[in-house]
Amino acid sequence: MEGLSLPVITDPPVDHGEVESWLQALGGPVWLVLEGADDRRCRAVTTLLHGNEPSGALALHRWLAERPRPRTRLAVLLANVRGALTHPVFSHRHTPDDRDLNRCFRPPYLGPAGELARAIIEDLERLAPECLVDVHNTSGNGPAFAVATRRHPVSEALAGRLCDRLIVTDLRLGSLMELPERVPRLADCPTFTLECGGALQPAAREVAGGLFRLLADCPHLAELPCPPDLEVLVHPLRVELRPGAVVVYDRAPHPDADLTLWARIDEHNRGVTSPRACLGWLGRDGLACLEARDGRGVDRLRELFCAREGRLHARRPLRLFMATTNSEIARSDCLFYVVPSG
Question: What is the pTM of this model?
Fold first, then answer.
């Protein structure tokens, strides 16, 4: 396709090598465009915005070997190729000298990541897709789920065929899925993030592969009914460390840490967390090392969590998701998200 800011490979050839060598050959951010039976319509997928979340790229590499022929044009962006290939591969959210790309989709578009985000926006405006799905892995192990900034029947129909839960968030972080609110030409485009599960979970690649097949095979997205068992949760809270706080992960408290989270905190990404469950141990300042702000900026941490004999507990049954055991992600992004249950 002509007129896009980023490089384009149309109808990419089948690559039977390793994913790493395939990405190295691509060289950087690139659109892979599969021409469809109806090229008047386009559907778009972005993946690898985070270099340590490879399931979308892995699934795409395998799916392309099937020589698919989509019903419509399908444009797939491999974004942060440089971050993904930084040694050791698939371990860096972004390169040390750059910003988190999925926090750069709002002005000012500073640095290489900001410039890349602006180029992606310009390309999406030109593509004018009838849907946009951003594929990620969760920071910790857990089931797949979807996230959107608003409800839309097409987003819910697609998400409900790939996972059991859709989170509708009022938090705004500068992520790609917020673009319909900021870019007039994308205002009517159903958009959501698909969190496929943990990067090391084989099932995560199957979820991503299911997305590519679904978008390629479905003639008309508006005709897809929403599965009745899709659970929709609204207005999650980000539980974050306050500036300067130290977190570690272990099976016993660390005396020098502000917070010691249970070593397998990501087990709470499934089901409902009971107030009886110990999530970790608090340091001498107790809950003061944490905050949980809603979309209006109000800190609601103490409505949801409490300290009991130096341990961190939920005040009420909660749904946790995106709980990570990676201390770097916990410091630079967040500990987990939470929604009250019931």
Answer: 0.92
